[in-house]
Every structure is written in structure tokens, then in C-alpha cells.
Amino acid sequence: MEKMKNLIKLVFLILGLSQASCLFSQELIRYDLYVNDSTVNFADKERRAIAVNGMIPMPTLTFTQGDTAEIHVHNLMKEGTSLHWHGVYLPNKEDGVPFLTQMPIPGNSTFIYKFPIIQDGTHWYHSHSGMQEQIGMYGAMILKKREDDPTFRKGIDDLPSIPIVLSEWTNLNPDNVHRMLHNANDWFAIKKNATQSYSESIREGHFKTKLTNEWKRMLAMDVSDVYYDRFLINGTSEQNYDQFKAGDKIRLRVINAGASSYFWLTYAGGKITVVANDGNDVEPVEVDRLIVGVSETYDIIVTIPEEGFAYEFMATPEDRSNQVSMYLGKGIKQLVKPLPKLKYFEGMKMMNDMMKMNGDLDDMGMKMSLQKMDMNTVMYPEIQDQSTNEHQHSNASHQSEKDHTEMDHSQMDHSSPSSDIITLNYGMLRSPTKTSFPENTKVREMKFELTGNMNRYVWSMDNKVLAETDKILIKEGEVLRIILYNNSMMRHPMHLHGHDFRVINGEGEYAPLKNVLDIMPMETDTIEFLSNAEGDWFFHCHILYHMMAGMNRVFSTDNQASNPYLPDKKWAYRELQKESNMKHFMIQNDFATNGNDGELMVHNARYSLTSEWRLGYHDMHGYEVETHLGRYIGKMQWFMPFIGFDYRYRKMDKHDSEKNIFGQKNSKNERALFSAGFAYMLPMLIRFQTEVYHDGNVRLQLMREDIPISKRLRAGFMVNSDLEYMGDLRYILTKNLGVRTHYDSDMGFGVGLSVNY
Ligand SMILES: [Cu+2]
Q1: Is 556 or 401 the better-scoring residue by pLDDT?
Q2: Average pLDDT of span 16-37
């Protein structure tokens, strides 16, 4: 009996061993991730964050191609969460998008993601729930290439490598950031010194530029929307790697895990060699610098030129408000020249030229694509100064006035000889292997215009937010060729889940593979992907505040099997739609010597409900409340029809009724009136409003708020056909507080504190 038992044991042992040897090539790699609330102090204030295994960024997950990943997510928080594996091919139910591929992982529960690793490359992972990514839920995911892989590149794939996770931090709650963006609050511009006010424009000789800008109904322009208190490289401000010697080559796996910032990469030790992008190999290409779009990854190689030095590798956010660094090597620090401040008015002038009166962009026949012609170059002093010198030189030798547009052209083109700085663009990426699809594959073409408006912070595709569109049905086996045109004033990093797409950049069969496409204003780019995975795949802008504002779509394969993690897909899709069309709330009140007036607003992508009130103490005794419910029409949302209700009660000594400019009598003491009308945004951002009340009275009104006089001083005025008028000046003290003085035809002169949220 005992012998029998031993024999059975032996058999099991042998079976076990053979299984183990089999697993050697296909290992099951398990990670346990504990997601928990945490407190951090990144910028002089204690703030709530979310840490995984106590870390921000989340721990780096490493797998080798052929492994099976098994990731146990233990949600120790009260709120739901999720993890999305960015750039990774996997079954749809493992993709980690709440309400699209699974239900949120409830608080105090564990969810297991399990999928085979069938690719290599630098990828990352992050929460796809609410604003959790912003407060810490991002981390590197490195998929190593096997040495016996035919695409293994000696001298590249065997170099020592360092993951670099770039991110930002704000002490503000990201929900509040989102709300402020939707309310066109210019606090971030004040913090960034990018108000572009009238007095600043005069000082810099750009008064006409500013006037034209407002004539075309634009607010101050910037390359990014949010002010950050701090930028982070692997969760800190500075890192040192002093183990490297002269001649060493290091592969940096750079991941932009920022919520809304692009980063410039520069290196003190010479050229940067780009070898992979979004986890896909590219033919090595040498550059002086490159910009990493939000959620993109770049693998780059840098060299230590000499012994005795620590070479700075710097990441600078696109708005150049700060920077973070890593030092490679040991010894005296070799610094990178920081990127000089942007010339905002030059950018404004460029935008003025491109903006048509109807809010569309006009590329003036330049056929821009693939980041090849970076219009923002007009704002870069480091390139402008260089090229100005050279132009002066060439002008002198030519002795003639050069064609102006041609000059601008060469200034904008990085690869032109007018600049010595070689900047990477998508046209320079080439896959080392063929990426073309099998012949006879059916190709379906789709076009999307990227649309949006800064004033109300609505971001959409074809002027529709996700809440206004159904899933886009696709078939497995077909190629989707997608033509994107960016008709908005900002760049957008468009990300596709679960697939890589080819970027059509002139490299033919060797077109590079990516899963994020940065598309600059006015550019047209073509991407194509083979639909080869069943399920619902998100396609969205990865600037998280643009995504939350509605700039997304879902590609959905037909005849899908049911998803065990998402029993009711129809209901879930409506939840997803709601998330990308949230209501935003704003309130302000002026506590002044002559009275009290304020406004409350609740609005989403299309609708707006506002209530304005005035309460007088002296000249006007009484109060009035005007409420309007309107719907914004068109891409630029300049036109808004509305219905309203107006209530007023007041005691006036002088006269019981007044006449408006049309001679209509206006009983002013007490009235409760319904109205209908519309508002329209005129050039110079003047709001024209007309409404008819149910007693037949008509009111026309012109109004302008927040004229930027100086960095912190705002002016405004109002006149209407009831012969009422108002003028005000407000000095902004903090995000929520200002000092305001105004003169009102009813309420008289007043000074007070203006409070806003
Ligand atoms: Cu965007």
C-alpha cells in the first residue's frame, strides 16, 4: 500500500516537472495590486491620492512575450475602480473600461485580470474610472522581447533599460479642475502667466493681435489648459543613475502618464536615438529632441559621452511652466539648456491668421499632417532666434524682400535648414518589418473631424459628444481606414484600445504601428487598423479632460458573444455616455455696498440653466431674479435660443413705470413674466441677447464680461433697451475671490467682494 502511494507520488512528481518545464517558456506571472486611498504632499499641501501597493506611480509590471499575466486587483477603497492595459492586445473583457468592457470593481473586493502576453514593448496601465488616473493610478508595463525572437535587435533590445514615467500634480481636486475648465475660469492662465491681457499686448507691441483675436471670438490661446503645481519623473523631481560609464548606451522607456501635458525630451549628452514608439519597434532615428504626446510611449537610446560627468535628461511640459530631470553617469552635472518661455502673442497672431470668422480653421493650402509642420514653432524662441539670425544673413546677401509666407513656412518647418535643431515627427518613423495587411482585405473608410470650443470646453468628434452617438459597428476581418481632421485649436492624442494602427506616413508597407496619434490643429492624418478582436473598443482623446468632455467613440464588432463582466451592455453604454456629458456647476456673488448681485449656472455640453439675481439696498430697494434655460447650437456654440422667467419686486420713489427705447411701458414695481429669446456671441466676445416677454415687451441687451485689462484686472459692461446700463471692474485676488467695483443704473455705485466657485 505504502509502495503504491509512493509510486503515485512519483508519477505526480514527474507530471509536475514536465508541466514546469513547459511553463518555463510560458510562465504564469502573477501580480497582486492593492489599491488604496493615500495622502501625499507633492506640492506643499497634504492631498488625497490613490496609491497601489503604497506607490505612486503604481509598481512597474514586467512580463516576457509568451507569459500569461494574472493581475489580482484588490480594491481597498470605498469607490469603484478599474485598470486599463494601455497598448496591450487582449480579450475585450480584460480591457478595463468600466461600463464598456466590465462593471467597475466595487470597493472592498478583488478582481482578476488574466490574459496572454502576445507582444512586446513599452506600455503602461492606468485607471479608467473617473479622475483616478490624475491622482496616482498610472504605472509602467514592460513587455520584454524574447532573445530568440526574429525581431530581436542586438545593441538595442539587450541594452540596460530604465522606465521613465512622466506625470503632473495639482493640489486642486481634478473634479474641480474639470469644472473650472468648463466655466472658462482663467485662474490657470494667471498662474501660468499666460493671460495675454490688453496691457500685456500693448507692452509687447501686439495690441492689434489681441484685438483681432477677440474680434474672431477667441479667448487667450495656450498649448495646454491646466496649471500644475509640480511635474514628476517616476514620482519625483530628480533622479540619479550614477552606475553608467563613458560609452555606455542606455535605453530609456519613456511613458507620458500625464493627464493633459505633452513633454519635450532633451539630453545634455548629445543626440537621442528613437528606437520604438507606443511599444512598436521603429528603425533607429537620431534627433535633438522630441515631444511625447499624452499617453504615448517612446523608447530612446542615449549615450554617456565622457567619464566624470552626470548628463541631464530633461522632460519639459509643452507650456514650459517647469521641468523635471534625470542624471545619467557620475561626476559634474552637465546641464541641458532649459527651454525658454513661449512667445504667446506670436502664437496668438498665428492662430488669428488661421481662424476664419465662422470658427473653422483655414490651413491656407498648407496640407499639414504628421507633426511635420509645427505651427507652434512661431512661439519657440530657441528656434526663432536661430532662424532670425540666419534670415538676416540671407536677406543681406539676397538684397531683396523675401516672400513673407515662404519665410514663415521655413520657420515653421523643423526639418528645414533654418533651424539646426532636429525634432522628431511622425514622418520620420518607419517600422523595421512590414506592417501592411494581407491583400484583398476589405477596407472601410471613415472620416472624423475633431471639433471643440475653448469657451465652453466642449470637445467632440463631428460636433457630437459620445452622449449623442451610438457605437460604431464594425466587422471582424475588415480594415478600418480612418481619416482624422483636427478642426479645433488644440492638439489631441487620439488613442485606440486593443489594437495598433498603421500611420500612413509615406513609408508604404513599412508604415509605423502606433496606438496613439497626436494630431495638431489643422492637420489631416490617416490611420488604419485590422479589426481582429471581438468586442467594444474605445477610441478617444487621451487628454483626460477632453475625454470626459465627450471626445470619444466606441468601435463595436458585430455578433459579439456576451461578456460575463458586463451583463447589461445597453444600460452600461448609457452610463458611459452620461460620464462624458456631466453637468457642471458655477456660482458667483458680489457682496457690494449698494447691493448684492450674482449668478448661478448649471450646464452640460448643450444645455445651460442660469439664474441671475440682484438685490438692492439704496437707490433700488427690492430684488429681481432672471432665469434662463437654453440650448447651444453649432460647433462654436455662439447661438443659444432660450426660454426664461423673470421676477422682480421693488419699491421706487420716483416713478411707477418707465418706458423702454421702443416706447413700451414697463411696470417696474412688481412683475412675473415668461420670456423667449436668444443669445448670440458677437465679435469682440460681446453677447447680444434679445427676448420677448409674455406681456409683449421686448428687451435687447449687449453685454461683455471679463475683458482682460491686465493679468488680474477684468472689466465688463451691459446696456439694454430698458435704458439700463452697468459697468464694472474686478481685480482677481485668488481662484475664488476678487474685489469688484461697479456702477449700475438702478443700484448706483458700489464696491465689494466678489466670490465665485
Ligand atoms: Cu483632446
Answers
A1: 556
A2: 71
581 C-alpha to center of ligand 1: Å? 15
Q: Which amino acid is at 102?
A: Q
Positive/negative CA dihedral, 177, 182, 183, 185: positive
Q: How far is the CA of 222 from the centre of ligand 1 (A)?
A: 14
Determine the distance separating the centroid of ligand 1 and the alpha carbon of 746, expressed in angstroms: 44
Cα-trace Rg, the chain: 29
**Cα 538 to averaged position of ligand 1 atoms, centre (Å):** 14
38 CA distance to ligand 1 centroid (A)?
29
542 Cα: distance to centroid of ligand 1 (angstroms): 6
Is the model more confident about 518 or about 221?
518
Whole-structure pTM value: 0.89
473-488 pLDDT, tens digit each = 999 999 999 999 999 9
**Alpha carbon of 551 to ligand 1 centroid (Å):** 7
SS3 675: strand
The grid coordinates of residue 456 equal: 465652453
Q: What amino acid is encoded at 256 in this protein?
A: N
Dihedral of CA 385/390/395/397: which sign?
A: positive
Answer whether 451's CB lies under 8 Å from 463's CB.
yes
Could you give the angle at which helices 404-412 and 381-398 cross, rounded to 10 degrees? 140
Distance 490 CA to ligand 1 centre (A): 7
Distance (Å) from CA 515 to ligand 1 centroid: 15
Confidence band, pLDDT 50/70/90 cuts, at residue 589: very high
Residue 160, burial from CB neighbour count under 10 angstroms (0-12, 13-18, 19+): exposed
Q: Which residue has the higher pLDDT, 154 or 389?
A: 154
Q: How confident is the model at residue 6 (pLDDT cuts 50, 70, 90)?
A: low
Rounded distance between C-alpha atoms, residue 297 and residue 306, angstroms: 28
Longest dimension (CA), the chain: 116
* CB-based burial label for 460 (10 Å; 0-12, 13-18, 19+): buried
The DSSP call for residue 555 is E
**What's the per-residue H, E or C state across 298-353?**
EEEEEECCCCCEEEEEEEEECCCCCCEEEEECCCEEECCCCCCCCCHHHHHHHHHH
